Amino acid sequence: MKAIVGKKLGMTRIFNEKGAVIPVTLILAEPNVVTQIKTEEKDGYAATQVAMVQDKKLKKPQAGHLAKVDIKSRVLREFALTDLNLGDKVDLNQFNVGEKVVVSATSKGKGFAGTVKRHNFHCGPKTHGSNNYRQPGSIGSMYPQRVIKGRRMAGHMGHEQVTVKNLEVVQVDLPNHVIYIRGAVPGPVKGFVRIWSENV
Which of 47, 102, 132, 174 supports an S-S bond with 78, CB 3.0-4.6 Å? Predict the structure, then answer.
């Protein structure tokens, strides 16, 4: 398994050999450092924790956790990586052009949204004095006299983990630590993104 943590820079377009336009997302993925090896015996599951190195002021618990590898970072993520040791570095050398990857990030938050925007509900009639244009309508029957769990209603939209599969690596810029991924990647600009591939 290949994996790395990066920061979304934004979108642009590039042209292939045939002159076709390819929309791509640029992700800055500087070398990550392995900060912890989790095991079944100690933690209940096996995983490898990596950190994207930042020059940020840390709180004492964070600094103590990273003292063994002597780095500063607030961005820690876990992957099911193997054959790595504490302090090892993970970089973009592992990814190849044309390879399919999985990308996961926290989507853009859109605040409180109604049912029409959040769940694509139909609007009511606009004319003949109707006051039911964007209202949710009925939320249940007389029995059992409560709202059933899972009812689609107005509420907080976005700001949740989104995973997109089968995205193609178009280009890998090793000197600048930038990876070009075809298509849209969830999350805002400067948001942190996890990239991994099952292909070894």
Answer: 47
Q: Which among 174, 187, 52 has a CA at the least distance from the CA of 110?
A: 187
User: Per-residue pLDDT tens for 88-129?
Assistant: 999 999 999 999 999 999 999 999 999 999 999 999 999 999
Tell me the two tokens of residue 121. 């509900």
Strands, E, within 18-144: which ranges? 21-28, 32-38, 47-52, 75-79, 89-90, 100-106, 109-113
Which of these, 29, 38, 28, lies nearest to 4 by C-alpha position? 29
pLDDT digits (tens, 9 = 90+) for 119-152: 999 999 999 999 899 999 999 999 999 999 999 9
Domains of the chain: 2-111+165-197 (2.40.30.10), 112-158 (no CATH)
Dihedral sign, Cα of residue 54, residue 55, residue 59, residue 65: positive
